[in-house]
Amino acid sequence: MLLKSENLSVSYEKSSVLQDVHFQVEQGEFVAVIGENGAGKSTLLKAISGEITDYSGGITFDGNPLSDYSITALSKMRAVMSQSIHFQYGFTVEEVILFGRAPHDERRSKSLRVIREMMSILNICHLQGKLITELSGGERQRVFLAKSLAQIWDYDGLYGKLLLLDEPTSALDLKHQKEALFEIKQLTNAGLGVICITHDMNLVTAFADKALMLANGHGMAFGPTRTVMNEANILQCFGVKTKVVNIEGIAHPVVVNAA
Predict the structure, then answer these.
(1) I need a surface site. Which of 98, 132, 203, 245 has the fewest CB within 10 A?
(2) pLDDT, tens only, 85-121
(3) Angle formed by the axes of helices 137-152 and 108-121, to 10°?
(4) C-beta atoms surrounding 233 within 10 Å
(5) What are the backbone angles phi and psi of residue 149, rounded to the nearest 5°?
(6) pTM of the entire structure?
(7) Distance (Å, rounded) from C-alpha 16 to C-alpha 239?
């Protein structure tokens, strides 16, 4: 078990944001978190990343309470790729990815070997010397993914590590959305666990092994994606009527508006 949440509850100034949320992530598993704005998705991400420590219930990482880990130790095991990352200065792609190795006490030569491995995995070696400000949205997204992966890469590669994604495709066009999530999905084959917050139901059905549906701070449904992403659950969670259909030539169910 890579990460497990049991009876997780979070409140801000007596206002409940999350209530008794249960879910778990195994090594090599892609779990999507979906729900309306204000459902508690970002708060959940902050809690399981260690950013929020004032919660009730339990969060365990690799079988140990999350609170047992120091910030440095946690930084080597899980990485957070935020919704939007801004670099105001002209860092090169190599320099941006190198920031990901900050938690590691190692020689620069070792850090450079790691980031070049990340660039090779994500096919961005040709961008190495370019300024981050000169890249397209899709290119920048792959660079930031490489930075996050460099943060948690060690001698075992990515096995048993966790990548937390907050709307990773929100600024991308359709082509680059699919490319980005395909690359992330491929990395789960190496044992990387992924938790991805998204609003896109069809990206969930296409890439997620399991889905957690949040409604008003409650974990409304959790399980295999094809079980969770049904018309009744979508109506209850989002208040919209949909059809979940199978289309010839498409390997996953497709969610369409029924209105």
Answers:
(1) 245
(2) 666 668 999 999 999 999 999 999 999 999 999 999 8
(3) 130
(4) 19
(5) -70, -35
(6) 0.93
(7) 22
Rounded CA separation 50/69 (Å): 9
Task: Report DSSP letters for 57-87, one per residue.
Answer: EEEEETTEEGGGS-HHHHHTTEEEE-S----
What is the domain count for the chain?
1
How far, in Å, CA of 219 to CA of 209, rounded? 17
3-state secondary structure 168-211: CCCCCCHHHHHHHHHHHHHHHHHCCEEEEECCCHHHHHHHCCEE
Model confidence band, residue 138 (pLDDT cutoffs 50, 70, 90): confident
Sorted by sequence, the CB contacts under 8 Å of residue 193 that are 6+ apart come out as 2, 3, 25, 26, 27, 28, 29, 31, 160, 161, 162, 163
DSSP β-bridge partners for residue 257: 242
The CATH number covering residue 114 comes to 3.40.50.300
How far is it, in rounded angstroms, from Cα 235 to Cα 37?
Answer: 15
Rounded to 5°, angle at Cα 230 from 28 and 82: 45
Q: Cα(184)–Cα(164) distance, rounded to whole angstroms?
A: 11
Q: Are strands 78-81 and 254-257 parallel, antiparallel or unpaired?
A: unpaired
Q: Tell me the residue range of the domain where 127 lies.
A: 3-257
Question: Residue 259: which of 245, 248, 238, 243 has the closest Cα?
Answer: 243
Closest CA to 114 of 177, 53, 156: 156
